[in-house]
């Protein structure tokens, strides 16, 4: 079934306004835990915030607690991406006092800087991925004529915010995108092969050049609306996680899920809670390299542990 542009616009409006559809089907997932051991921190951005000041937060998933949360001085952030050259970029929607723009986010302290803005740029990105060639790829709301809007898959130049339409299968509604460490684009999307508006939500890989998708798997037999994941992100070692905000049907709100890359099924692993309520963009931080003092201390420890054995071996050889 092909979803009409009216349905797509309604879905987009619901994402932006926070007025989400209800879900009739009740699904159960793997039981969650209160924290996830052994993962690097995440960097998060939000659509809104107190006093019109969306925060940038560095969050320790291991302890389910923020490392810092810094006001950004603006609002309307959408998805965030980690580029191939190691930059964290987030797209700001059009605001009453400023056009759409692209910001760089600095993970050490949460500060941001405006890189470029344009009156002709897309109004908002619902999902976004960084491509190996430097372009950005995502599902955006654009103004097709004065007062008329549509949802389109786009390829965006991050230097100018110039964009071109990308081929797309309109039977799928993208909800989250992520780029794997080897440069492959993954997509979580809703769709229907029956009379209902949405009947499934599944994980796919997608070719941005052709729009062709390869289904991995996911959830079927759904009824009603699917709000799904606010964002997805890969760790450096190739694990894919999905993050939900306050409206997340059919998933647990304000939570973290890990995808099985063989079946596409997400499993609940943590529920950080209210701090995720207006979450829009997430990326993992690099696993820190051991510092020189730490390596030196480790070397001393190893030597101290081995010294008795070395002395015994020397005694045997000389004795």
Summed up, the domain count is 2
Distance between the termini: 86 Å
Structural class: mainly beta
Main sheet overview: 4 strands, antiparallel
* Global Rg: 22 Å
Helical fraction: 10-25%
Order of helices and strands: HEEEEEEEEEEEEEEEEEEEEH
Annotation, overall tally of beta strands: 20
Write a short abstract of this structure.
The protein is mainly beta and 319 residues long.
Can you tell me about this structure?
The chain is mainly beta and 319 residues long. 13% of the residues lie in helices and 38% in strands. The chain has helices at residues 5-17, 292-318; strands at 42-46, 55-60, 65-71, 77-82, 88-92, 101-105, 112-117, 124-130, 136-145, 148-156, 163-165, 172-179, 185-191, 200-206, 213-220, 231-234, 240-243, 256-259, 266-270, 279-284. Strands 3-2-1-20 form a four-stranded antiparallel sheet, with no helix packed on it. Strands 4-5-6-7 form a four-stranded antiparallel sheet, with no helix packed on it. It has a four-stranded antiparallel sheet with strand order 8-9-10-11.
């Amino acid at each position: 079934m092909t979803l009409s542009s009216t349905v797509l616009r309604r879905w987009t409006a619901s994402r932006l306004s926070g007025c989400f559809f209800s879900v009739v089907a009740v699904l159960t997932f793997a039981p969650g835990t209160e924290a996830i051991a052994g993962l690097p921190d995440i960097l998060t951005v939000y659509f809104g915030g107190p006093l019109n000041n969306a925060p940038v937060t560095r969050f320790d998933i291991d302890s389910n607690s923020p490392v810092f949360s810094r006001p950004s001085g603006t609002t309307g952030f959408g998805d965030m991406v980690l580029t191939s050259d190691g930059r964290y970029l987030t797209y700001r929607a059009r605001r009453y006092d400023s056009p759409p723009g692209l910001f760089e986010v600095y993970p050490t302290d949460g500060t941001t800087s405006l890189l470029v803005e344009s009156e002709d740029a897309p109004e908002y990105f619902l999902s976004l991925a960084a491509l190996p060639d430097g372009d950005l790829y995502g599902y955006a709301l654009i103004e097709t004529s004065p007062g008329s809007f549509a949802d389109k898959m786009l390829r965006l130049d991050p230097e100018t915010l110039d964009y071109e339409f990308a081929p797309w299968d309109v039977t799928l509604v993208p909800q989250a995108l992520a780029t794997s460490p080897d440069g492959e684009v993954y997509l979580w999307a809703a769709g229907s092969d029956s009379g209902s508006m949405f009947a499934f939500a599944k994980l796919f890989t997608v070719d941005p050049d052709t729009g062709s998708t390869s289904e991995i798997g996911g959830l079927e037999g759904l009824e009603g609306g699917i709000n799904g994941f606010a964002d997805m992100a890969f760790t450096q070692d190739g694990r894919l996680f999905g993050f939900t905000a306050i409206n997340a049907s059919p998933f647990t709100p304000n939570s973290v899920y890990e995808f099985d890359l063989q079946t596409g099924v997400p499993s609940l692993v943590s529920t950080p809670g209210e701090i995720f309520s207006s979450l829009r963009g997430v990326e993992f931080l690099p696993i820190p390299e051991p510092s020189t003092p730490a390596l030196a201390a480790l070397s001393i420890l190893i030597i101290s542990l081995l010294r008795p054995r070395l002395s015994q071996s020397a005694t045997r050889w000389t004795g």
